[in-house]
Amino acid sequence: MGSLEEILSALEERPDLREAVRAKLMAEDGTQPSESPEGLLDGLRETNAILKSFLQESLRFQSSVRGAMQSLDEALRALSQQLDLIVGQGMMRWGRERIQNIVRRSGVRLAYPLEWQILEEVIECAVQAGVLSRSEMDDLYEADFLGVGQELATGTPLCVAAAISCVVDRTVIELAASHADLWLKAARAAMERRPELLAKVLPTAPVDRRALAVGLWIGSVDADHADSLRVDFEKVIEDPLWHF
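RESULT FIELD:
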């Protein structure tokens, strides 16, 4: 065996021997010799292909999740609308069955009977007189309740309109006010041109209107809005859901 100087000299003169020694040492150390540039590129291409496949699968998964969430949202929205419709219909039926007591709580005695045919004739009379437009007529026909009566305290003849909803918000309040205003205009016009239409239920033409918003709950801000529009909130005392 040569000296250390001879071994080093041989390694310098023979690259193949030097590479063999390096490989041997790295193998004993548990590592692998450095790959060639071509090998590194192949490894990078393989890694890139794996990452690209993973990203594509992730995007497909995210797309399917978004689709499922959208479908779920649409189903929940449809169910919510159905429940609102059922509850709303129950409230409407409950309110109309008890409207006389509800209006009386507001301080008005309703005049009965006031048939739907009379309501139609009063509204049509107001349209023919130019007091109501066709769009206002259509709006008035959408009212939850229209009636006439007298104020309990003074006997003053009044027009009454009510909007019925589970939750009384600004929309319900404004509907009640609008319908009451339109109904007052229509009734006054009818009393002037065809007094026989309401003569049996009102001694004289109505001088004011009573707007009612009937429901289970109203927020404090909406209550202030109701006051500003002269709309009375009538709280449902018993639970209408028991009457479905």
